Amino acid sequence: MPNTQNSILNRSLVRVFIYAIVFFLIQFFSSQYEGPTWLETVGIIMFFLGITMYTIGLNNLSIQTAFFESSKTLVTTGIYSIVRHPLYTAVAITYLGAGIWNQSIAGILTTLFILIPVLFYFAREEEKDLITRFGEDYINYKKKTLF
Prior knowledge:
By secondary structure, the chain is an all-alpha fold. 74% of the residues lie in helices and 0% in strands. It has helices at residues 3-28, 37-59, 63-67, 86-101, 105-134, 136-144. Mean pLDDT is 81; it is low at 1-6.
């Protein structure tokens, strides 16, 4: 693999590692609230919905398209026909669901006020690159999809 491809793959792996560390620290070392059972059920559903969405998003991409700058393919099918950033969206849903499921105030607040803004930042930076690479095709794609 060329250095550029290794660099992109390494950045992606670092992001996943950071997500995992933050998740475990927040969920296991935070105060909890006593919520209703139905809310816990909503959290469980969100958690597994997020994991499912992430898996579907990865399946809609090839490793080449997902991580390498040299990709010439704009993926607009499958879940990408609805959401431009299903992996970021899935991470947010999973973390928020985990916070609700575990009844973790810190988990919910950190997801809402730190993780989601960081994911928006990542998405905006990624979109600058995608506009440069795909031009008008990406701009038109943005108009047809959600975040």
